[in-house]
Amino acid sequence: MSSEAQEHTKQTVTVPVTGNAAPSKTRRRRRLGSVVARVALVLLFGIGFFLSAFPMGRATLRTVLLLPTLLMASEPAPLTLLDEPVRRTQMTISSASGPVYVDVYAPTTAAPPIPGTRGGLIMIPGIGDNRNVPQLVNLSLAFAHEGLVVMNMTTTTLAHYGLSAQDSDGVVQVFRVLAHWPGVSAHRIGLVGFSGGGPIICFAAADPRIRDQVAFVALFGSYFNATSLLRAVGRRALTVDGRTQVWQPNPFPIQVLANVISETLPPAEGSRLQSAFTPGGKPLTAQDLARFSPGTVAAYHLLAGDEPDQVDANLAALPSQAHTLLDELSVNRVIDQIHAPIYLLHDRSDTSVPFTESRDFAAALMGIHHPYDFAEFGIFQHVEVRADLGIGQVLSDSPRLFRILNEILLPSS
Amino acid sequence: MLILSLFWLLLGILIGALANAARLQACLSPRQGATRVPHTTPAPTGQIGSLQKDLALGQGWLVMLAVGALAALLGGWLGVLLLGKYVATAVAMWVAVLGVVVVPWLVAWVHTRFRAGDSAHGS
After folding, report:
1. Fewer CB within 10 Å, N- or C-terminus of chain A?
2. For residue A74, what are the domain limits?
3. What digits encode the pLDDT tens for the residues A279-323?
4. Are B21 and A37 a contacting pair at CB < 8 A?
5. In CATH, what number is assigned to the domain containing residue A117?
6. In this structure, are A246 and A163 located in the same domain?
7. Burial of B74: CB neighbours in 10 Å, binned 0-12, 13-18, 19+
8. ipTM above 0.85, yes or no
9. Shortest Cα distance, chain A CAs vs residue B108, angstroms
């Protein structure tokens, strides 16, 4: 043993215990503080590295940043610091079913070297031209600020409150434009359908021209089967977990269904049926109905909901063209042709499209072992965030919304 | 970008402070960095040795804040260039942590090499 070490031992032994009590306590506290700080540093390193180096981490970060913007229906001021500059433009694209009107939200900067390409979203914001609805604009900007190129589209049929399966060609054409957008990868493009836009998105996702490229399909407040939707409208009731519950649809989906079915009726009767269900339209009288064909009468009773016990008979009395059209507009005919994972979101108290439609959709997807996720929410009113959100509701729904948004953002991260 | 850069600097200073709390700055002391004196070793009884140590630790404390801030700023800008703005803060975070861990270690290592070189030349 060296002389220095001997001296050390001697010193340690000779120091009185009472005099060392306070310093040793301080030393222990310091050591504990040091350990806590080291753990904090390891955690910060791990979190920072995960959120930036891995696609799943980047998707998580994007979701964390997107969620407040979505829930508050506007972007919180501090988050604007992280925004990529975005330009909004409009374009018209030709398709087999006519012109497609597109609003583009694209970052003005080049795609970052990692991952090297941008993701893209094609959204159909329901029936009608809803491209300027503030919540949609906010959502589109939020996605674009995070580096995605967003294309919101509508067609002439949709803008006139109609629905046509042929509009899926419009989605395919928009997909092609987006796939060639500077910086966008064709394999990172997802399709999002709100409400009545959902089926058109599904028909496009099943299209052999693009189905192997579509990264995901997200449907919000959409229907699965047009006939079961019409049945729910006619019954003014839903069957949930084997129990019947009252369901009062709002006038808009009834108007759209009237527009759709009227195409299969004699022209004069069809236009009369349409006008009966437009806002401010006069209901058909018994004399009117007496003059109409059985198919038109059945369609009227289904839409008016005045014969809830005769729904099956009225459905059977619809013209065969109406049945063909309803089948053509139903998603169930194409689900086995969609290759992308499907994410379903639905407002539990939706008065436009019953949430049981998404439940049926999810059950069908589970039956064919197709990758999917499904979440029901209380924070939305059909497809828009409610204005009177309670904190409890937000807290209970946020994890589900986070999960689905994270899945949606993963391919583009 | 100015506000974001200032935010990264602040984040780096906080991480530097955490590194101080974690006693990572001890390596910046030439005396401790070179010889890695264990904490259990009693302080030297001589007044001059104690003063040297305090001075060295005091400078190390400030240096750690500066290292954290600079590393975070560097990481933030690197994040913007490589991954985009929204990920930059996460990059700033882990680069700052990396900075406050690696820089003191590197300084100690260089110091040891330098002294070892000096001793070799001297003998």
Report:
1. N
2. 57-225+330-409
3. 988 888 888 889 999 999 999 999 999 999 999 999 999 999 999
4. yes
5. 3.40.50.1820
6. no
7. middle
8. no
9. 19
